[in-house]
Amino acid sequence: MLHLVGLGLADEKDITVRGLEIVKKAERVYLEAYTAILLVDKSKLEEFYGRPVIEADRELVESGSDDILAGADKTDIAFLVVGDPFGATTHTDLVLRARELGIQTNVVPNASIMSGIGCTGLQLYNFGQTVSMVFFTENWKPSSFYDKVRENAQIGLHTLVLLDIKVKEQSMENLARGRRIFEPPRYMTVAQCASQLVETEETRQEGVYHADSLAVGAARVGAPDQKIVVGTLEELSSVDLGAPLHSLVLLGRRTHDLERDYIRQFAVDEKTFDASYQKYYGHST
Ligand SMILES: C[S@@+](CC[C@H](N)C(=O)[O-])C[C@H]1O[C@@H](n2cnc3c(N)ncnc32)[C@H](O)[C@@H]1O
Q1: 245 lines ligand 1 (CB under 6 A)
Q2: For residue 47, what are the domain limits?
Q3: Boundary residue ending a domain (70, 85, 111)
Q4: In which pathway does it act (predicted)?
Q5: Residues in a beta bridge with 158
Q6: Is 94 in the pocket of ligand 1 (CB under 6 A)?
Q7: Predicted confidence (pLDDT) per residue in 233-283, tens digit
């Protein structure tokens, strides 16, 4: 059987008891290592599980999935996913491939950033579509997220923005020369995301949000050093929330008084918070 096991959000101890039992008895254990990272090294996991873990990069999962599935009709293979196996990462293609090969599948859920973001005090019921923000380059600044934010904003909902992760990236030169040399991993910060949001508004100029709109930055959700900061996009463009992973929430107009009171405690500056809040939020229609 193929077991997709959620690892939760922070460290090796966030795996569930059921997940750990599977990991201990599986023939091979893979760790999906490109859509999210745990806040500890792979060696910590291996020590805790008492067995080796094979890192599965995008190439292996997307092109070499039959290697992962080899033998899973007779033995147990564990495929570990940070967060929840189906939370903001769709491993449905792996499950479909397993089904095609007549291999049974089992999913062990866990906490996801999609639910963990509730630690900000914003109610999960009040979120609209989740969007992703990729690293802009000089010539490539995709803004499809902007239209989704608009749809959410039109009905007053918050938008969770998940931030780009670049692992196993090759420079143009290494790519052109076919050299398998990889750049160091990069994880987008709340500050980079906030400034790209402002840049996009400046380009599109459709008033979906503004440089003085409020957003919530969340870093290392679920870890002991989790950090939450609230401010205008302009303010967040220069905050330092430390080590990855980071996420950002654009505040929706229909913010409830309780949500406001809760997030205000994380304000970079209470005066700018109150001013922006008065200008744009707390309205139900
Ligand atoms: C593609 S999603 C993968 C989500 C994962 N499968 C889950 O269920 O949480 C990865 C993005 O979620 C966000 N994220 C994941 N874990 C996080 C954490 N502990 N704290 C803050 N953001 C997190 C980051 O923006 C990261 O780039």
Answers
A1: yes
A2: 2-111
A3: 111
A4: Protein modification; peptidyl-diphthamide biosynthesis
A5: 127
A6: no
A7: 999 999 999 999 999 999 999 999 999 999 999 999 999 999 999 999 976
**DSSP helix/strand/coil, 104:** coil
Residues 157 and 221 in one domain: yes
216 lines ligand 1 (CB under 6 A): no
**H-helix segments, 105-222:** 113-116, 144-154, 172-176, 190-204
pLDDT at position 112: 96
Binding residue numbers for S-adenosyl-L-methionine: 9, 84, 87, 112-113, 163, 221, 246
| Cα–Cα distance, 104 to 100 (Å, whole number) | 10
Residues 6+ apart with CB under 8 A from 200: 141, 143, 145, 146
CA-to-CA distance for 132 and 183, rounded, in angstroms? 22
162-216: pLDDT as tens digits = 999 998 788 888 888 888 888 888 999 999 999 999 999 999 999 999 999 999 9
165 and 247 both lie in a single domain: yes
CA-based nearest residue to 161, from 119, 197, 137: 197
Q: If you average pLDDT over every residue of the chain, what do you get?
A: 94
